[in-house]
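Recap from last week: sequence in, structure out.
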Amino acid sequence: MAAAINAFLLLVVASSSFDVTLSFHSLAFITTTHASRFNSNKNARGKKSTAIFALPELLASSLPLLAPSSSAAVDGHGVSLISPQVLTEFASAAMTYLSLIAYFDRPRGSLTIPNAESTLQVRPSHVPNAGLGLFTTQSLSKGTILGTYPGVLRPANTFYDGKGRNFPQAIGYSWRFTDNKYVIDPTDSQGNIQDVCLGGSSEVPFSNTIFSTIFQIWKVNTALCRINEPPIGVGGCNVSARENLDTREVVFELIQDVVPGQELYLDYGLTYDRSMYG
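Predicted structure tokens:
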């Protein structure tokens, strides 16, 4: 299912890339009409050079021209500013923006074991001061693939300078890849972990709102984020994590047989913050 969604999104983005070029070309006369207003934000716009950032400003600058006005009924080429052509181009640009957000800010990850929601249970951890943990409700064999780490893929620098700085608790739930280029962030817009990750990012205009309303169907379960490190004397880890830097996935696999009611534990490495543990 996830592969089918990714293939569909890639197709939409590919077709939209050509479409957005035509959309901006046709909307150029609107941008020129409001040149003074648009140029006042030139410096801010220069920091965000991609279409996914520039489009909201273009729309905000141009929307007033879509309203009926006796003083601005046509442009210099004699084209009505409220003609079907203009409305079509705006709709096309908006669809392109939605498709780009859907692809880049979508929630990734999944639980792959059968009946995952009944096989795994989130409840208070045995680790002192660790909050919630993840437990099994039935026996599972060594080598069982639990799934892939959930969240939104973000450039590491963007994440730590943005959400990581504003909401430090988000760092504790994010997965930083070993090459330090990207993180997978499963938290909400306030940096808190919920039962599901809806997707979206705080750096892209309207992204969080779009995913919390239009794209809710893509939400992913965040149970794997609840796995803690083992306390001293418990007997070590029973889960391993394997990174794929090409696909930017983290696969969780059992490295021991587990029995019903057993808590799952994982070694998060040398850089993990353990100050919260008792």
